[in-house]
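Reviewer comment 2.1 asked that we show a complete input and output for one of the modelled complexes. We chose the flavin-adenine dinucleotide case, as it is the one discussed in the main text.
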Amino acid sequence: MRTAVVGAGIAGLACTRALVEEGHEVTVYEAAAHPSGRIATLRTNGVSDQSGIVADHGARYFSARFERFLHEVESWIDRGEAARWQPRTVAINDAGVPEAQIERLMRFVGVPTMDAPLRALATGLESRAEFRYATPVRTIHHASGDWVVTDDSGRREHFDAVATAVPAPGAVQLLTEVAHLHTAAARVPMAPCWSLALRFAERLPLDYDAARVNLGARHEHAGVLAWADRESSKPGRSEDEVWVLQSSDQFAREHIGSDESEISTVMLDAFFAATGIDRIDPAAHHARLWKAALPVAPLCDGCLYDEQLRIGACGDWCMGARVEGAYLSGLAMADRLNGRHRDFLATCSLAHHSA
Ligand SMILES: Cc1cc2nc3c(=O)[nH]c(=O)nc-3n(C[C@H](O)[C@H](O)[C@H](O)COP(=O)(O)OP(=O)(O)OC[C@H]3O[C@@H](n4cnc5c(N)ncnc54)[C@H](O)[C@@H]3O)c2cc1C
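Response of the prediction step:
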């Protein structure tokens, strides 16, 4: 079967590997110049002279509750592509008053960067599937029993089956010819997030590595930040003092159109107000808006699929959200394309609450 997979995030890559193992001829279309999607690592120029930054500015970590994903994570750990991360974590509800948290969640990160296991997975598949990077798919049409995938340059290719592995708003745009899939994807809103990576010339006087921030409503900086953590506390990173701040979804919604420098100032002010330490100007900073960071109310379907038409959608928004959900969704998609169907409902609600 000639199958197109649209998206080389973790869902698309997990799906691709399972498909090639069952004999599909797979073509992977990826809009970006590299794989990994929202498991993203920022690399700006000038790291050696302190003017640049390397930091994970999408997913900060992932959990692994279910056997199928745990096995994958164990194989990444065995190859040195991932490791457990145990940050000293606090909650900051009152500015300057961190409360130590006892965390039961087991966190993992890619090593030396979050995208490392995904890049390795894609590299391992390159001899078994056709990868088209920097090739966004524009439309997917049904014609004479085939699916015709048209990319941004106007190039058209025919396939027997298609799996989209893109965030819900992208699936809505691509699945216009399959009404029930289109409608299901349109029902899953995704929350935005501003992510700010900061590099400081000196270590900040904070005796914790990660903070869940939720300042009280009356605080001047309430509602700006949701999370902050120290990159160098993760295994395999450099000693550089790099922090990544993530905004609340409400803040991101209200500042979708704002410019990066304005957002950087507001988030930095909120960070120093929340931590209660004296302000230090960063040597480098980089803000990025993720318009579709996390699904607000993800489905629990594993994936969406039309068996007759052989087209479907997978991704975190189909399966409980987050990295683990996206991985399991990619496998569910491959199962459906291979004529198998599992009930993911119980798995899904647990996955949703674990992250
Ligand atoms: C700021 C932020 C923080 C997060 N924190 C965490 C966390 O701490 N823990 C956690 O578990 N999860 C976290 N997540 C969520 C996690 O990153 C996602 O759940 C997971 O990576 C989703 O994987 P996916 O494969 O479904 O989608 P994606 O990773 O989004 O992959 C989709 C791919 O499709 C490509 N694409 C899109 N449209 C097209 C098109 N038309 N043609 C071709 N290619 C296309 C994209 O470029 C992308 O590479 C976070 C996400 C963000 C943004």
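The chain is about 25% helix and 30% strand. We note this here for comparison with the apo prediction described in Section 3.2.
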